[in-house]
Amino acid sequence: MVQERTLPVFHAATAQITREQGLVLYEDMVLGRMFEDKCAEMYYRGKMFGFVHLYNGQEAVSSGVIQAMRPGEDYVCSTYRDHVHALSAGVPAKEVLAELFGKATGCSKGRGGSMHMFSAEHRLLGGYAFVAEGIPVAAGAAFQSKYRREALGDATADQVTACFFGDGACNNGQFYETLNMAALWKLPILFVVENNKWAIGMAHERATSQPEIYKKASVFGMEGVEVDGMDVLAVHAVAREAVARARAGEGPTLIEALTYRFRGHSLADPDELRTKTEKEFWFARDPITRLAAYLVEQNLAQQEELKAIDRKIQQTIDEAVQFAESSPEPDPSELYRFIFAEDE
Ligand SMILES: Cc1ncc(C[n+]2csc(CCOP(=O)(O)OP(=O)(O)O)c2C)c(N)n1
Ligand SMILES: [Mg+2]
Question: Residue 6 C-alpha to ligand 1 middle, in angstroms?
Fold first, then answer.
């Protein structure tokens, strides 16, 4: 039997989150989970097409990192598994779902679909279909903040960028090239690796000579940390430190979050390669159940309050479905609109 990599020990008591922060994290993760479950349902009902990659199981990473930032001000760069990053960054669920339905009211005006969520308003730099494609784009965003602050003297330009990508992306050259420049220029950026152990059907250990990705930071003289990606409080604590470091001009951090996707690679994947034992090990670490138990145990929230949040989010999702269904498709006469920024 393959041994699971030992998860870093984290003592929740040291996190010292307030009740408000705990509830924000809970609500954000529930939104991500319920949204993705609804996507699966809508996909199988034929409401959306193409590849759709869901985020179930990984919510603690998106919520833990993005809620440690200033959503709507700081930048977020995603991958093709991008719906939940968009939601955590503040893009309304109805605009993400409308995008999935290819509707004109979608956050990318119905032109992008599942893998291309984008919102200038929410500083979401996009989903990207190519593995590792977002990494240099995120570094560009971090560079412009630093350039505006240091070269142009704009003291308000203290934005931080969070760049999310998978374990598979770390075997792509863009990862190494960008880490080098980001460390050299001390860019205000968090490189967040969501190590879910698999790149489609390729097990991480089979493809990677040094599977402990966070250690790769050291060769660039960069901070590297591993964190239990199924524990939102642990992710949040690590992210807060990294954000503070970036904002203070002390440069980037490589965060490796050990996590797991609860579904197949995409909705077209029968998910037959991963063993039952492995899945069960990770299902037992569901980040939402875990945070709920912590909040109740610590008397930060009552079970009933959490249920009320679940109901509220369910309503948000139902409204998103109605909005997406009743929205118009982009008009064919507008096919060439939004290709250039000036069309905005
Ligand atoms: C440059 C490039 N090569 C190959 C692919 C095909 N591909 C799509 S997803 C994927 C696996 C990536 O896995 P990982 O980075 O671990 O992200 P995860 O899907 O686990 O979130 C591959 C190889 C691609 N999209 N882009
Ligand atoms: Mg992966």
Answer: 25
